[in-house]
Amino acid sequence: MIMKEGRGHYGQAIGILTLDTRFPRIPGDVGNASSYCFPVKLKRVVGATVKRVVTERDPALLQPFIKAAQELEKEGVRAITTSCGFLAMFQKELAEAVKIPVFTSALMMVPLVYRMLGRHQIVGILTADSTALTKQHLQGAGIESIPLAIAGMQDKTEFATAILDDTLTIDPEKVEQEMISVAQQLVETNPEIGALVLECANMPPYTFAIHTATGLPVFDLYDFINFVYNAVVVQERFTKGFL
């Protein structure tokens, strides 16, 4: 069989559009390539700062994100995600700009999670900034009509300083304790929560701690990326079974 292609490199099925940030992306962070057991291709969108994406919802960033997504497609990735759940606001436009799957935000898992729950249960969302998470983002993810309880990290010193203010240092142990505190308070205030979804792509390093502290199922973008990877890189399975 003759194989033919024209790219200079291969084997990176998942492309990740990252914000233009400088804070440390620790293992488990979606923007840290060592988080995965398969190769990923990271592409920074210059000028897409936390402030412009999260706080300002700057529409001028749409075209740079489209351009970067199209570049990733040409470079051979099979699906595209991002390093910020607030980019759900561009989900429709980015999906229409390429011919491969695009999943901008962990918020897109909410409909699936909600369908798993009983009729008296709701989905809890932990977000980087609950004051900045608007109807536009919920609509972008297709979850505006789903019952939700939402809590943000904007008032927690270490998370807000490191991530939202985009500083050069982070104390993961402090962030973990802040995440646990917010998650526990959210669940205590809303006992009908049946599962949690972490909006922020910087939160997966703390998923285990949140699950342990709350006892609830916790879904994050890292899970979503692995789910999509296994759909776009399908390998032969079940060859060693027997009847």
In short:
The protein has 243 residues and is an alpha/beta fold. It has helices at 50-55, 62-74, 91-97, 110-116, 135-141, 157-164, 172-189, 207-214, 221-232, and strands at 14-18, 40-44, 79-82, 102-103, 122-127, 148-152, 193-198, 218-219.
Task: Explain what you see.
The protein is α/β, with parallel strands linked by helices and 243 residues long. The chain folds into 2 domains: 100 residues, Rossmann fold, CATH 3.40.50.1860; 115 residues, Rossmann fold (3-Layer(aba) Sandwich). The chain contains 9 helices and 8 strands. Helix 7 packs parallel to helix 8. The model has no long low-confidence stretch (mean pLDDT 96).
List the helices and strands and how they pair.
Layout: E1 14-18, E2 40-44, H1 50-55, H2 62-74, E3 79-82, H3 91-97, E4 102-103, H4 110-116, E5 122-127, H5 135-141, E6 148-152, H6 157-164, H7 172-189, E7 193-198, H8 207-214, E8 218-219, H9 221-232
Parallel strand pairs: 1-2, 1-3, 3-4, 5-6, 5-7, 7-8
Helix pairs in contact: 7-8
Low-confidence stretches: none
The backbone outline, from C-alpha atoms, is: globular
Strand content: 5-15%
Query: Based on helices, strands and strand pairing, what is the structural class?
Result: alpha/beta
Largest sheet: 4 strands, parallel
The CATH topology of the largest domain turns out to be Rossmann fold
Q: How many distinct beta strands? A: 8
Sheet with most strands: strand arrangement: 2-1-3-4
| Radius of gyration over C-alpha positions, nearest whole angstrom | 18 Å
Helicity level:
25-40%
Helices and strands, in N-to-C order?
A: EEHHEHEHEHEHHEHEH
CATH class of the largest domain: Alpha Beta
Number of separate structural domains? 2
First CA to last CA: what distance? 34 Å
Mean pLDDT: 96
**If classified by CATH, what would the architecture of the largest domain be?**
3-Layer(aba) Sandwich
Number of helical stretches of at least 4 residues: 9
